[in-house]
Amino acid sequence: MLNFSKKNTLLLLAIFNFGIVVAQLPPVFGNANNLNVRSTSLTNKYISAERIVWLSDPFGSFVKNAENILLPGIGQADLNSGEYLTLISDNKTKPGIILDFGREIYGGLEIVTTRSNKNPAGKIRIRFGESVSETMSDCDVEGATNDHSMRDFEITLPWLGKLEVGNTGFRFVRIDLLDPATKLQIKEISAKFKHREIPYLGSFSCNDERLNKIWMTGAYTVHLNMQDYLWDGIKRDQLVWVGDMHPEVMTINTVFGNNEVVRKSLDLARDLTPLPNWMNGISSYSMWWILIQRDWYYYQGDLGYLVHQKEYLVDLLHLLATKIDENGKEILDGNRFLDWPSSENKEAIHAGLQSMMVMTFNAGAELCEILGDKNTAELCKTTVAKLKKHVPEMAGSKQAAALLAMSGLLSPNEANSEVLAQNGVHKMSTFYGYYMLIARAMAGDYLGAINNIREYWGAMLDLGATTFWEDFNIDWNKNAARIDEMVPEDKVDIHATYGDYCYEGFRHSFCHGWASGPTSWLTEYVLGVKVLEPGCKTIQLKPHLGDLKWVKGTFPTPEGVVEIEHKMNADGTIVTTFNAPEGISVVK
Length: 588
Description:
Blueprint: H1 6-23, E1 43-48, E2 51-55, E3 63-64, E4 85-88, E5 96-113, E6 122-129, H2 132-135, E7 152-157, E8 162-177, E9 183-195, E10 203-206, H3 209-225, H4 242-255, H5 260-271, H6 283-300, H7 303-308, H8 310-321, H9 346-371, H10 374-387, H11 398-407, H12 412-420, H13 433-442, H14 446-462, H15 494-497, H16 517-526, E11 529-531, E12 538-541, E13 550-557, E14 560-568, E15 574-579, E16 585-587
Parallel strand pairs: 12-16
Antiparallel strand pairs: 1-9, 2-5, 3-4, 4-9, 5-8, 5-9, 6-7, 6-8, 10-13, 11-12, 13-14, 14-15
């Protein structure tokens, strides 16, 4: 017979009652009816490092068994002893290691320790980096920061346990033991890769492997930014910037097809911005919201979603119509912004905003006709006619020239010959480079645009990039070291040295979705896919191969994937074959 004390009896009752409570919990705790639970569509995968970039002690006195940290982990501590990574410090030496996980990812680290450690195991410093040199940096030096995400911090590891830490964009990680006179043994270090597990429905390949790699790098850059919301950067900024979204959304249309992240992010921007405020405080970003709505509808054909935007859309169009003077000149207030490299050229900004007003009201007329609002559609048309009375100069700006051409305020041929085709890829930018490519295509200069892609975006790949950057200046290439290696003394550290405005030095984001323009551009103008009817019900195939011999790929539609192939004959003619799903009409 068991003899229970009063204390033990109360404990058993508490356990029994807790079991009843647990049994009454819903089987799916994150159900839609529970407003206190937030779910996510993201997946975690754990990746082992591919190589060791650097050891503080290459002779093995203070860093032992380093190569074993490259072995795949299981994420579980155990009681076994083994030849594990061991960091040994004395009163002077603090050992460290830099790991390369092979490509840029978003997430953090999983670290598993062993029984051979003290309790707790010891304090370490972790520095995430988008370049090797960023892992060697100190905060507040050469632009290095902990803005938006912590990438440089100290943490204590547990004895015989597991710890997960980090929420940033990185490829490289430096770990240093901070405690003096300590022996720290680590069984596993894995990168926790947080992403949407979605298929790449769109594809592109041709006889130029450089273009193929650029297309895929743009797609992957946007994929990393498709978190719970559509960010523009996974290290900095982890925010929904609406203008930055436009190239990203076009890449999503091209590669992934319909995805909730676009609708969630557009709705968030709308709900956070009661009129007459501008989205993100920037007037052009409210216009980009309208342009994205038009493009999203044409690619996805979701009328129900568009109808849900009607009230805000119409009110925003009416607000924008008040921002024009009697001569047809835009007088937009708020932050007057196109992109950072053009931000000091006020004439270029005006030309760009004037052009965007024309593009926005043209899109507004289309959307309002679809929504059955004839009065607002007519307002949009008369507003376009008024805006066309004022045609600004290009102001020597490729950004302004591109938008003037796209809006029809200026001949694309004139914009191309006088500005866009001048001085190679100098004065291009990663964001507005997309629109420069479009304007060059409108002028029929497809080969010029293809060569811009090879030279400008390809240069980032030559420097070791696995995602495209917030900005890039071709002049930075001169004597620059690769970002995936230690910087030699006779080379320039491109990450520490360059950058401007809000992205100086290491604050510069090396994974920025607005830089993905070549991905959708190559699909639209080289593979030749042009959407003619909402929902891709009718698409046109009109390829422009430039100097390519062949190109093939796939394109996602709401009805399925279209398979396409073009081959260039010796006489310059192109033979096209395709396979389209039922419900999709293809014209040439």
